[in-house]
Amino acid sequence: MKLLKIIGLSFLGMLSMGTYSQELDVNLQLRPRYEYRNGFKSLMPNGEKATSFIAQRSRLNFNYKQEKLQAKLTFQNIRTWGDVATTAQVDKNGIALFEAWAQFDFNAKWSARIGRQVISYDNQRIFGEIDWAQQGQSHDAAVIRFHQTNHQLDLGFALNANAENLLEPKTAYATNYKSLQYAWYHTQLNKLNFSLLVLNTGYEFEKNSGNLEIDYKQTFGVYFSLKKKKWETNFGAYGQTGKSNGKNVSAWYAGGFLGYAVTSTFKAGLGYEYLSGKNQNDSSSTLKSFSPIFGTNHGFNGFMDYFYVGNHQNSVGLQDAYLKLNYTSTKWQFTVMPHVFNAPNTVLDASNNKMDSYLGTELDFTASCNIDKDIVASAGYSQMFGSGTLERLKNVTDAANTNNWVWVMVSFTPRIVTIK
């Protein structure tokens, strides 16, 4: 602790002498999580057994601030307990850079942030941090921001490459998107929040041998949220167009939630989401399945991640009707969320006959407890009751197998030192 203070004071002293007020905050996050997976992400195949493990995130955050300059540096290590020997000289995953950005405030209304950063907006349906994933999600980008009372406009830009190349590479860049541009506008009118998002993403692909091209896909839409006395509601609608891998894109999404505070500790709500898809007997080349792009998909459509978390892309789409029951006390919080899933488009059986649209029902139960100001314990149990149609989509032979998931997580977030 004493050494960190000396380092921090020295750091501030080197940056400037006799300058503006400055602040350095150093904090830590340690987050081990146990999981028991018995049909997680997909129905449990016959003859297979469940698995369990403990994964851990370890993060060290440095936050610096002075009058017009802010900077953040976050290091992290992601590991599975036991993935290296007890006598290992090096770690399997090493230390990664999660965030590394600097922000300069030109004046009270204009600022710019450049570097590796989290981009997250609204309910994180399109842009999110994906904090549930131990590695999270961050972007190499530049964001210019205009903000005044009740109004904010963000303009974001990114250009990606696999290295400092001398010549154009012969293979397509596939780490993530090749380029990105977006505009996000947000305003608040009394208790109504309104946002507008326009996003353009370019992905490189090999059109034919030696011929690389970039196709651009546009995602655009609106998001509303309102809290008034005991009621709260939100609604989002987005469309997608453009091209992807030489194919036209035409897809859309709509989702809403209505909640009511029954008492000061108990809330209940109903929600519904529609993500467009494509009939399995549709022979057109157009991509009609909506993609949440950079969204925190684990927070939607059930916690067992059967849809849109590394799967279900370019499929038949999804309808998700759900109920949310939440109880909160001083230290405890309990949530129960049943989901009923249906396919909005045609699913065919092995004989090309149309199957029932019902995919299944998932029940999610979570609990959390604030043990101390820097310690939060949480746990969850989920179970999927899949149908024959879901079995067909997941290419699994027996949907009647028990499919459940259990997790227990503890998050430690101590502040190591704050120097002003």
Structural class of the helices, strands and pairings? mainly beta
The total count of helices amounts to 2
Q: Biggest sheet, open or closed, and with what strands and sense?
A: 18 strands, antiparallel, barrel
End-to-end Cα distance: 15 Å
Mean pLDDT: 94
CA-based shape: globular
Helical content (DSSP H or I, runs of 4+): under 10%
As a percent range, the share of strand residues is over 45%
**Any idea what the radius of gyration is?**
24 Å
Question: Which runs of at least 5 residues are low in confidence (pLDDT < 50)?
Answer: none
Query: What is the N-to-C succession of helices and strands?
Result: HEEEEEEEEEEEEEEEEEEHEE
Please tally the β strands and state the result. Answer: 20
Q: Can you tell me about this structure?
A:
It contains two helices and 20 strands. It has 420 residues and is mostly beta strands.
Keywords:
mainly beta, 420 residues
Task: Give the gist of this structure.
With 420 residues, this protein is mainly β.
